[in-house]
Amino acid sequence: MKKFCYSLILILFLVQMLMPSIVTAAIQPSSEPTYFGMDVSSYQGYVDYDAVKAEGIQYVYIKATEGTWETDDYLRYNYENAKRVGIKVGFYHFVRARSEEGARREAKYFANAISGMEPDCRLAMDFEIFGNLTWWEVNNLSKIFLEETKRLTGKDMVIYSNTNSAINMFSQELANEYPLWVAHYGVSEPADNGKWKSWVGFQYTSKGRLNGINGNVDLDRFTKEILLDNQEEPVPKPEPSPEPGNPEDEGENIYYTVKWGDTLSQIALNYGTTVQSLVYLNNIANPNLIYVGQRLMIKTNQSSNQETVMYTVVSGDTLSQIALEYGTTVSSIVALNNIPNPNLIYPGQKFIIKTNGENSDLHDCNHVLYLIKWGDTLTSIARKYGVTVQSIVEENDIANPNLIYAGSLLRICTSQ
Description:
The protein is of the alpha/beta class. The chain folds into three domains: 25-226, Glycosidases (TIM Barrel); 248-299, LysM domain (Membrane-bound Lytic Murein Transglycosylase D, Chain A); 365-416, LysM domain (Membrane-bound Lytic Murein Transglycosylase D, Chain A). The protein contains 13 helices and 18 strands. The strands form five sheets. It has an eight-stranded mixed beta barrel with strand order 2-3-5-6-7-8-10-11. It has a three-stranded antiparallel β-sheet with strand order 12-13-14. The protein is elongated, with a radius of gyration of 27 Å.
């Protein structure tokens, strides 16, 4: 009994200790609208600012300095070209200090590097590598750097932090005094950190792609509160052009810009293609990771040889499955039938469906829809259904038979 009581006390103590770190909600932007932005350093090389401006970028945070030894090679180039095209500019410093004097020296080094330049946004402290520093030392050094930088430059400050550090490293005192530019990837809104009630910057991916930049770039959303007091907010235009979700026709291909909540599977279904095709065309390393603002090429299989059929919904149907079965797209069925909510269809409903003549033979065989699972291969799936790998490849327009992905749907014709 005594051991049980001790165990119960220990469990309750651990639960109490862990409770402050349990995050279930999200923090919201400090105001609306939010603005489309990025942050850059020498890693991006020469940025074509006319091109990124055309993509909708309105804010850019530029790496200025790190420690007391590194001024970014592209600082002046990024600043002058962003200013030239009218993008709002902010600067950040990567903190390496391990002593109070070190924090003061870094503030001076930062201030000297940006002297003569006119930022539009708060100066940012990026402190994310803590080594053996204690919680108290991290906050003390942060406070010294932030206060000294403001004293030297006369500019207000913002703290850049990922959600984990916001929860576990930075103090409520700092949160009360300085706004937050938060990094949290793979979510539509950053998680609640228990200290800041809102954000003025939200870095949502480190693998964004933009015309005008070779390779990946951090993408952000910003609010007007990240601006310095004497700056006017830009004209609201929070998303790049073309707007996320709107395809841009280019001959037989279209270009689609990823929006919040998209998955490759859903995009493939909506546009009558396959996940494999999207992965192959866009050189996607991980089909489960796509990012808002990412631009995808989609090969369409349009044909003038179309047939029109009338389809009656039966129990268990979804528009995605119907679209797959008839070689069309969800968006096409929705448009033809003026469907207000594609997620709500009912048995007995009748839909007009325009089928591609090339796919009409789908209904001359017994076919199934197969959801790919981890460990599947085309060979194992073909053996399961008594068909050939080649037939599955042809039915599903698979670019590389050795690359299939869990969660994708395959159409399998089991008999001719």
